[in-house]
Design a protein that fits this description.
alpha/beta, Rossmann fold, eight-stranded mixed beta sheet, four-stranded antiparallel beta sheet, elongated, binds adenosine-5'-triphosphate
Length: about 400
């Protein structure tokens, strides 16, 4: 049975582990400019629209979802390549969302990024030695005469020949180039690595080797990962916790088991239905395939209420009127759906309505008393909404 279904209204979770990153209500709205001479702002692309999550020390949070849902933008805000429109990025307890210039410099050492395509993220005119050594020189990490030695150590660390420091990126294979990208990210001994589709440009046979390398580094240096990927099988293998994004929002987040074995959001269920299921295949069966109709709507003008409702087979009146809150329904499980439930077990009535003070159609209900939403915020609360008993928990 899942953590979700066995949770009682007043279950108490054990003390949480140390948090490295805590992101709160993070937003990135890119301005859309008109075509006139003045180029006025005529709208905004709501690429990320209020996401909250935590990454524990030495752990990995996977960020999954279809193309364009805001995964990369979230990663780029965390590494502060982008300045967020709104929200907090608490890294080891300090909010770096508004940092700029000099203040950001020390953070750049601690949070590094690994990019999808190693051939475009490495300068073809520089030798591997100068690519990996550059951060050491910029940040004055080691004396000049020690840079080469450190570069060679890093090459060895990622499984490359340390004597190849004088070669150029094109002299390496795709997998080796990604190892160079990883060595560069490791140069400054970061605490958090944001890996944006780190293996999707590689041959399947090479993917496992690079994933193993990332795991070895994690074990050896206690690194935490924000791991962005569209491949749910890889995320399942790599990440103890997973967040599912749709059109700029997190629709479901939880530990591996809650997401992969007890998904409660129809979007997560549809994504999972496309992943080959080895267990099912071994007993001669096939996982039921759920097809999502239509395209992802534009983030410039997302649907009212629940962003997913235009493609959702469960959608009812309330879904177009009220946005579902990210409701904690298990010890480590939150879902943003008015009708959360395991596949084919979704409730008839919106469980969120009483909490939000609305009736089942989403209209204000004068008799209801809206309540605080369990789990609202980046982490997990000690109490959660018990779906089995349809009641709110209390400490
Ligand atoms: N600099 C930008 N200016 C305007 N819109 C942007 C910008 N960067 C991203 N977007 C838009 O924001 C939305 C989210 O993009 P993002 O790249 O974060 O999604 P993603 O989930 O990482 O997708 P993919 O897997 O294709 O990279 C998309 O609609 C994209 O077109």
């Amino acid at each position: 049975m899942s953590d979700t279904t066995t949770a009682t209204a007043a279950s108490v979770a054990p003390a949480s582990t140390e948090t490295v990153l805590s992101v709160e209500n993070l937003k990135m709205h890119f301005p859309v400019k008109g075509s006139g001479v003045i180029r006025r702002t005529v709208g905004h692309v709501k690429a990320v629209d209020g996401v909250s999550f935590e990454v524990a020390k030495g752990s990995a949070l996977g960020l999954v979802g279809e193309s364009g849902c805001g995964k990369s933008t979230t990663g780029r805000m965390v590494t502060r390549l982008y300045k967020p429109t709104e929200g907090k990025i608490n890294f080891e307890g300090t909010d770096i969302a508004d940092y700029s210039g000099r203040k950001l410099q020390p953070m750049r050492r601690e949070i590094q990024m690994i990019f999808q395509d190693p051939s475009t993220s490495l300068n073809p005119r520089h030798t591997v030695g100068s690519i990996i050594g550059a951060p050491l020189r910029i940040h004055n990490m080691v004396p000049k005469d020690k840079v080469l030695g450190r570069v060679q150590e890093l090459l060895e660390l990622v499984g490359l020949n340390p004597e190849h420091y004088n070669r150029y990126p094109h002299e390496f294979s795709g997998g080796q180039r990604q190892r160079i990208g990883i060595a560069r990210a490791m140069t400054l001994q970061p605490k958090l690595l944001v890996a944006d589709e780190p293996v999707s440009a590689l041959d399947v046979s090479i993917q496992a080797q690079v994933i193993n390398l990332l795991q070895d580094l994690q074990r050896e240096f206690d690194i935490s990962y924000l791991f962005i990927a569209h491949d749910l099988a890889i995320v399942r293998h790599f990440c103890p916790e997973v967040a599912v994004m749709y059109l700029g929002k997190i629709v479901e987040i939880g530990d591996r088991r809650s997401i992969y074995e007890h998904a409660h959001h129809p979007y997560t269920q549809a994504l999972l239905s496309a992943v080959p299921d080895v267990k099912q295949a071994s007993i001669g069966g096939r996982r039921e395939r759920i097809r999502l109709e239509g395209d992802v709507p534009s983030p410039i003008n997302p649907p009212s209420g629940c962003h997913f409702r235009t493609r959702c087979s469960l959608a009812k009146d309330i879904c177009s009127v009220v946005e579902p809150p990210l409701l904690q329904i298990g010890k480590k499980h939150k879902v943003a759906c008015h009708f959360p439930g395991e596949l084919h077990q979704h409730p008839e009535k919106p469980v969120t309505a009483p909490l939000l003070g609305v009736d089942e159609f989403g209209a204000p209900d004068p008799g209801a008393s809206p309540a605080e939403i369990p789990g609202d915020g980046p982490g997990y609360a000690n109490t959660w909404y018990d779906l089995a008993n349809n009641s709110r928990g209390s400490v």
